[in-house]
Amino acid sequence: MDKIAVYGASGFTGRLVVAELLRRGVPLVAAGRDGERLRQAAGGRPGAEVRVAGAGDPAALAAAFDGCAAVINCVAPFEEFGEPVLRAAVSVGCHYVDTTGEQTYLKRVFDTFGEPARRRGVTVVPALADDGGPGDLIAHLTAEALGPGADLAVLTVADLRRPGGVSRGTARTALANRRLWGGDGGLHWADGAWRAGTVARTETVPAPGAGAEPEAGELKVTAFALPGIVTVPRHVRARRVEAVMRAEVAPLFGALTEEVVAALPEGPDAGTRAAARWLMAAYATAADGRRAQGSVTGTDGYGLTAVIAVEGALRLVTGEVPPGVLAPAQAFDPADFLTALEPHGVRWSVLTPA
């Protein structure tokens, strides 16, 4: 079986990815800058090799990924560490996935790495985490429910999880996003282009129906910089795409400071993770007024991020996916991928209200 490299393997998410690969019996390379921590993450398990490579050393990165079929990049912030890892993976012919939620980095990957990846014959699928992956896939299925190629007036991608514990890496990403976007809620898609500086028009969304949390009525939301804004317009035809988050959660990210982030534990403990539920939803309105909504939900978003990233990497290695930089719904069959997550407690549905 082909080896898969995990960069940032000694970090919080990286260790979860390593554990998921070992659970599936996939040989792996645990890569990063700290050899001792990498050895601890690998746990001396057969099939887990350790290779030391700092993100600032292109030659060491290329050597770390040499002989691997794919790289799963878990290091954050991606604005700082993402591109060198991706560049090294492409240079040695490795497929690549990552767990980023950073819009500017994500857009830069699509803008600059498509042609190099195609020339090298590798596939790059960024944003395979519990928000970017399921959010992109359910958005595609929701739009499709209104008919293939339907002309949508607006598509809203919503992160509707309730407050819960976050990792230090997630908090750092949120802090970096706030510095970039302030109160503007990041990018949105309007009239054929990505734009900044305008908050989402959507202020409430219907509580998701079957297959999600048992809520009713309308949920208050606010603009938020989700990765789906960068990926969804690449495979869904919509005049406007916007991203929102549950209104009581977004201010918690807005209150983060360097001091608060530094004081956070590396990640939530197992009990907190098991009790936390993540929920991504999509709401589509066609130009003729028809509507559809979809949702995907599960527990332990960090554990599911590891499952999603590993599932994606294995599909790139064993499947026939075109080379280049692709959104999750471009690389994988959305319904099939979400169905593959069901054994891990994921539930999803798409509704077309009468």
What would your notes on this structure say?
- There is one protein chain.
- A hairpin with a 4-residue loop joins strand 13 and strand 14.
- The strands form two sheets. Strands 7, 8, 9, 10, 11, 12, 13, 14 and 16 form a nine-stranded mixed sheet that branches. A seven-stranded parallel sheet has the order 3-2-1-4-5-6-15, with helices on both faces.
- The mean pLDDT is 90.
- The protein is built from 14 helices and 16 strands.
- It is an alpha/beta fold.
- It folds into two domains: 156 residues, NAD(P)-binding Rossmann-like Domain (Rossmann fold); 177 residues, Dihydrodipicolinate Reductase, domain 2, CATH 3.30.360.
- It is globular, with a radius of gyration of 19 Å.
- Helix 1 packs across helix 12.
- InterPro entries: NAD(P)-bd_dom_sf, Sacchrp_dh_NADP-bd.
- Pfam families: Sacchrp_dh_NADP (PF03435).
- It comes from Streptomyces hoynatensis.
- This is Saccharopine dehydrogenase.
Map the helices and strands.
Layout (H helix, E strand, L loop, with lengths): L2 E5 L4 H12 L4 E5 L2 H8 L5 E5 L5 H8 L2 E6 L4 H14 L3 E4 L4 H18 L2 E3 L6 H13 L7 E8 L8 H14 L5 E4 L2 E4 L7 E3 L11 E6 L4 H4 L8 E7 L3 H5 L3 H6 L6 H6 L1 E10 L4 E9 L1 H18 L5 E2 L2 H4 L2 H8 L5 E5 L3
Parallel strand pairs: 1-2, 1-4, 2-3, 4-5, 5-6, 6-15, 7-12
Antiparallel strand pairs: 7-13, 8-9, 8-12, 10-11, 11-12, 13-14, 14-16
